[in-house]
Design goal:
six-stranded antiparallel beta sheet; ATP-binding; globular; nucleotide-binding; ten-stranded mixed beta sheet; glycoprotein; 26% helix; 24% strand; transmembrane
Length: 900
C-alpha cells in the first residue's frame, strides 16, 4: 500500500526528534549485548494468553528499543481475569500475539479512555501516540459515547483531520448500554479512519443547548458526565527504526544491525520502509531473525507426548500420536485435530487448509496418509494446510482424497542430526523422505516400521514384531468346507438380491441424477471450484460472501420475472430480488455465454470479495448452478449518476454540493482501490454509469468485471484494450499498458460530465457526434468557463469552485499519464474545494446571524460530511443542509491552527 507524500514527510520528520532516554535498555547497547536464546532466557515469553517474541519484550534487556518495551499489567477488574499487555505508552493495549518471526509485523491493538466533563470547560483534547516505530494500519474503528458534543480526529503531527462525528442525547434517560447497541449518533457515534497515520489527536467540543425540562427528578446518568472513547478495531504495524536512514547495503556494516541470526536478511519493502526495515529468515529457514541462531531449519516437531491420559479416539476414529486432540498430545501444531462431534465421529483440522477444511476419516501412520472428505469437490491441484512449513499435499480430486504428510520439513539426514527432535523414536523404525506427488519436490520426512514390524514408529517401542502365522490365519482347514460352502451360497444370494434392489434404486433416481450432473457441469464450466477457493480460502474476503443456490435466487426474483428487471450491467440483465432474510439485492445475469464473460465474472467476484469500503458496492455472493453465472450484490435504489444527470424523465436533480460530495466519494473509492486495498486494483471502466447512488445519494462504485488485480510490486500491466469510449484513456488505448493513471483519465471525464451536464459522447447542434472530453479541452482554451459549464452549475457554484474543478478535470485528462495526478491527490484537491466552499458559507452565515445553533444540532448526522435523509429534488434545501452540517466543524478547523 502507498502512503500519501504529505504523510510520508510528516512521519520522516518524527525521526528528527531526539530519542527519549526514559527506560534505556541494554538492547540498545548493541556493541556490548547481542540478543540470543541465552541472554533472553530470563525474559517473560507471555502475558496471560498472549505470546511475545524478541525484538519485543517485558523488562530490562528483553526488548531491542524503548518502543518495543511491553508492560504486563494485572487485571484489576476481576480476580480470575488474565493480565493485560500494553505498549510502553501505557494506554495502547495489545490483544493479539506479538511475534518477531518471519516478518510478522502486525498485531491488533485496543485503546480506551474516559474524560470526566467539567462545568467550566467545553473543549477537551487527548492524543493517542503508540510510538515512533508504529503505524496504524489502514482501518481504525472508534466508538465514542457521551451527550451533546462534536468529536474530531486529526493526524497529530500534520494537524490533518481524518474523522469526525456528532453525539446528541434527545432524552435524559438514555444509558450507555442502549447507546452502544446501535451507535448511530444518539448517545454514541462511530468513526472509521482509513488514513494510515502514526498518531491521533482527539478534540471534543461540547454543545450548550440549555437544560432539558422534565417533570420530576432528573434521570441523567453517567453518559452526561463523561466522554468514553473505545476502539472497536485497530491494527498496528512496526519496523526496526533506522534513525540514520542508511543507504541500501550499508545496514549490515553497522554495529546496531538488527538481523543477528545466520541465514537472515532484511527488507525495506513494506509500508514503513522510509522509517526503518524488517528482518527475515532465508528461504528454507524459519524462526526469529533478530536473535543469534534464531533462523534454523524446521525444528517444530516434539517427539514426546507431554500430557498423560490423552484421548486417542473421536467416535470410532483412532487418533494416534503424532496427531492429537488436546494440548500436549500432538507432535506439532499442524497435527492438532478437533473432534467436533464424537457421536458422529466428526474429526477436523483445528486450523484447516488454506482453501477448504476437510473432515478426517482415517489416519494411516505407516503410509503417511490421511483419508479426508471435502463437503465440496476440489480441483486437481496441490493442497496445503495451515501456516508454517508446508507438510501436507494431495494430487487427488473429488470429495474424497488422501493427503500425504511429513512430520518436519527436513531431509532424513538433517532430521537424524537433531537427536532431541528426531521423530522416529521406536527401536524398529526408519526414516523415509516424502515428496510432492505431482511436483517431485521435497515435502520433508516421515517414519515407518521396518519390514517384519508393525505399529506406531512415533512412540517408544511402538513398532512390534509381526506374528506372520497369526496374520495369515494358519489354522487347520479340516472340517471347514461345508460351513464355507454355505457362507459362499448365502453371500452370492445376498449379492444378487442387493444388485436387484440397487438397480431399482438407480432407475428411480436417474432423472434427478441427470439434473444434478447438469448443475455440477455448469458449476465446473463457470469455474465454480476456483470461486469456492477464492471466497472461502482468501483471508481478505468478506465474511458474508457466499455461494447461493439457484433455488434461493429463483425464490428471490419470482422465477426471474421480467417485471423484476431493473437494468443491464456489464454481464447482461440485472434483476431486483428479496432474499429470505429480507435483504434487497441486485442479481446480475449474463445473456451471452462466452469465455470472456465467464472470465470477467470470475474477476469481478475475486475483486469484490476482497473489498470492504463504504463507497464501493457490497458483494453478497454468487450462484454457479446455471448455464448463466449469477452475481448477487447490494441493491442500490437510486440508479446511476449517469441516469440522474442525463435522464430527462428523472424526478431527481443534483445540487452543486451533491456533485462535489459524490465526486469526492468516488475519488476516495478509486484511491482505496489503487493504494489501500490488499492488492492494487485498476478499475478499467470508470464512468458515471458505474457510479451508483444509494438511498441517501451516497456514491457506490460498481461493475468490476473489467478490473485488474495488480501485484504490489508492479505499477502497470499489459492487457487487451477494454473500456467505454468517452472515458477511455487514449494512452492506454494506443499502448495497451494499463496503470492507475488510466482510471484517473476516466474520472476526469466524469468531472466534465458534472460540470457540463452532457453525455460523454453527445450530439452537437449541427448533428455531429462529439467526444465530451475533447470538446471540453478545446473550449476552455477558446472561451470563458462561464460559457461552457451548465446553467444549473453557474447558479450554485462560485467562479473559484468551477475553476478549481475544471482545473482538476483538465490535468486528469492530459494525454501523458505521468502528467496526471494520483486519485489520492484528486480526492484531496476536491476535499479542499469543498471545505473552502463551506468555510465561506459559514462566514457568511455568521455575519448575517441567521443560523441558530439548535438548528445545527438536529441536522448533523452524516459521518462523511454529508447530510442524512438527503432529498436531492431541491438544490436549495441541499445547500442549506450542507451549511448546517459544517458550522461546528469549520469553527474547530479554524481554531486548530492557533498555537496551543
Amino acid at each position: 500500500m502507498k502512503l500519501p507524500e504529505a504523510l510520508r514527510f510528516v512521519l520522516a520528520l518524527l525521526l528528527l526528534r531526539p530519542a527519549t532516554t526514559v527506560g534505556l535498555q541494554r538492547s540498545q547497547e548493541a556493541n556490548r549485548v547481542v540478543p540470543s536464546t541465552a541472554t533472553l532466557a530470563d525474559c517473560p515469553r507471555s502475558c496471560g494468553n498472549l505470546s511475545i517474541d524478541y525484538p519485543f519484550g517485558i523488562g530490562s534487556g528483553c526488548s531491542r528499543q524503548p518502543d518495543f518495551d511491553l508492560r504486563c499489567v494485572e487485571n484489576s477488574s476481576a480476580q480470575a481475569a488474565a493480565p493485560r499487555l500494553f505498549l510502553q505508552d501505557g494506554v495502547t493495549e495489545i490483544i493479539s500475539d506479538v511475534s518477531g518471526t518471519d516478518q510478522n509485523t502486525d498485531f491488533l491493538a485496543a485503546f480506551s479512555h474516559v474524560i470526566s466533563l467539567r462545568s467550566d470547560a467545553d473543549v477537551y483534547n487527548i492524543s493517542w501516540f503508540p510510538g515512533k516505530s508504529f503505524l496504524f494500519l489502514p482501518v481504525i474503528i472508534l466508538n465514542i459515547t457521551g451527550c451533546n458534543f462534536d468529536a474530531y480526529m486529526l493526524e497529530r503531527s500534520s494537524n490533518t483531520m481524518v474523522g469526525s462525528c456528532t453525539v446528541t442525547c434527545p432524552t435524559e434517560g438514555i444509558t450507555d448500554a442502549v447507546a452502544r447497541q446501535t451507535c448511530n449518533g444518539t448517545g454514541c457515534c462511530s468513526v472509521v479512519i482509513e488514513n494510515m497515520v502514526t498518531s491521533l489527536q482527539f478534540r471534543f467540543v461540547r454543545r450548550r443547548i440549555g437544560k432539558l425540562k422534565l417533570e420530576g427528578k432528573s434521570t441523567r446518568g453517567l453518559l452526561w458526565d463523561t466522554i468514553n472513547i473505545t476502539s472497536d478495531h485497530a491494527a498496528l504495524s512496526w519496523v526496526i527504526r533506522d534513525d540514520q536512514q542508511s543507504s541500501a547495503g550499508s545496514l549490515q556494516n553497522r554495529s546496531d544491525y538488527a538481523c543477528r541470526s545466520n541465514h537472515s536478511g532484511y527488507t525495506q519493502s513494506n509500508e514503513l520502509s522510509f522509517l526503518g526495515y524488517l528482518c527475515f529468515c532465508d528461504s528454507g529457514y524459519q524462526g526469529n531473525p533478530y536473535i543469534l541462531d534464531g533462523c534454523s531449519r524446521d525444528r517444530g516437531f516434539d517427539p514426546y507426548q507431554r500430557r498423560n491420559n490423552c484421548s486417542r479416539m473421536c467416535g470410532n476414529i483412532s487418533v494416534p500420536f503424532p496427531f492429537g486432540i488436546e494440548y500436549g498430545c500432538f507432535g506439532r501444531k499442524l497435527f492438532q485435530l478437533n473432534c467436533t462431534n464424537p457421536t458422529t465421529s466428526t474429526l477436523q483440522f483445528n486450523s484447516g487448509p488454506t482453501i477448504i477444511v476437510p473432515t478426517v476419516k482415517y489416519i494411516n501412520i505407516n503410509e503417511g496418509l490421511l483419508d479426508v472428505y471435502y463437503e465440496t469437490p476440489f480441483d486437481d491441484r496441490m493442497m496445503s494446510i495451515s501456516e508454517g512449513p508446508q507438510l501436507y499435499s494431495s494430487s487427488s480430486s473429488g470429495q474424497s482424497a488422501s493427503l500425504h504428510w511429513a512430520v518436519a520439513n527436513l531431509t532424513c539426514q538433517e532430521a537424524q542430526q537433531n537427536v532431541s527432535g528426531y521423530a522416529c523414536v521406536s527401536t524398529n523404525s526408519t526414516c523415509l523422505g516424502v515428496v510432492y506427488s505431482e511436483r517431485g519436490g521435497p515435502l520433508g520426512y516421515r517414519c515407518t516400521c521396518v519390514t517384519g514390524f508393525d505399529g506406531n514408529p512415533y512412540t517408544t517401542n511402538g513398532c512390534q514384531d509381526v506374528d506372520e502365522c497369526q496374520t495369515l490365519m494358519c489354522k487347520s482347514t479340516k472340517g471347514q468346507s461345508l460351513p464355507l460352502g454355505i457362507a459362499i451360497g448365502i453371500s452370492v444370494a445376498s449379492g444378487i438380491l442387493l444388485f436387484i434392489l440397487s438397480a431399482n434404486f438407480i432407475v428411480r433416481r436417474w432423472k434427478r441424477g441427470i439434473q444434478k450432473k447438469l448443475r455440477r457441469k455448469y458449476f465446473r464450466t463457470n469455474q465454480g471450484l476456483l470461486l469456492e477457493q477464492l471466497i472461502s480460502g482468501d483471508e481478505n474476503a468478506n465474511d458474508t460472501t457466499k455461494i447461493f443456490s439457484l433455488a434461493e435466487l429463483e425464490k428471490a426474483t419470482n422465477n426471474f420475472d421480467p417485471t423484476r428487471i431493473v437494468g443491464r450491467g456489464g454481464h447482461g440483465m440485472v434483476y431486483k430480488g428479496i432474499l429470505s432474510d429480507q435483504r434487497v439485492v441486485a442479481i446480475k445475469k449474463s445473456k451471452v455465454i462466452a469465455q470472456i464473460e465467464i472470465t470477467q465474472f470470475i474477476n469481478e467476484v475475486a475483486i469484490l470479495s476482497q473489498i470492504n469500503h463504504r463507497n464501493i458496492v457490497k458483494l453478497f455472493g454468487c450462484c454457479l448452478e446455471t448455464e448463466v453465472p449469477l452475481l448477487v450484490y447490494d441493491f442500490i435504489p437510486n440508479g446511476s449518476l449517469f441516469g440522474v444527470l442525463h435522464n430527462p424523465n428523472s424526478n431527481s436533480s443534483l445540487s452543486w454540493d451533491d456533485c462535489l460530495r459524490i465526486a469526492i466519494e468516488a475519488a476516495g473509492a478509486l484511491s482505496y482501490l489503487h493504494s489501500a486495498a490488499s492488492v492494487s486494483i485498476f478499475h478499467r471502466d470508470v464512468k458515471s454509469t458505474n457510479i451508483l447512488l444509494d438511498g441517501n445519494y451516497t456514491a457506490k462504485v460498481s461493475d468490476f468485471g473489467a478490473s485488474r488485480l495488480v501485484p504490489i510490486d508492479q505499477t502497470h500491466v499489459m492487457t487487451n484494450i477494454q473500456g467505454t469510449f468517452g472515458y477511455l484513456d487514449p494512452e492506454y488505448y494506443h499502448t495497451g499498458i494499463l496503470n492507475e493513471k488510466s482510471d484517473v483519465y476516466s474520472f476526469g471525464a466524469v468531472l466534465v460530465e458534472l460540470l457540463l451536464r452532457k453525455e460523454p459522447i453527445f450530439t452537437t447542434d449541427s448533428g455531429l457526434k462529439q467526444n465530451l472530453s475533447n470538446y471540453f479541452l478545446w473550449e476552455i482554451r477558446e472561451k470563458p468557463l462561464a460559457e461552457i459549464v451548465a446553467a444549473h452549475v453557474l447558479e450554485e457554484a462560485t467562479e473559484e469552485e468551477i475553476s478549481g474543478v475544471a482545473g482538476v478535470a483538465e490535468i486528469c485528462l492530459r494525454l501523458r499519464g505521468e502528467e496526471r495526478p494520483t486519485m489520492k491527490q484528486v480526492e484531496m484537491k476536491l476535499q479542499h474545494l469543498r471545505l473552502e466552499r463551506l468555510r465561506m458559507r459559514e462566514l457568511a452565515a455568521k455575519d448575517q446571524d441567521i443560523q441558530p445553533l439548535s438548528t445545527v444540532q438536529s441536522q448533523v448526522a452524516h459521518r462523511s460530511l454529508a447530510t442524512a435523509g438527503r432529498k436531492v429534488g431541491s438544490s436549495n434545501s441541499s445547500s442549506e443542509r450542507s451549511q448546517n452540517c459544517y458550522s461546528l466543524e469549520q469553527e474547530f478547523m479554524s481554531s486548530a491552527t492557533l498555537p496551543r
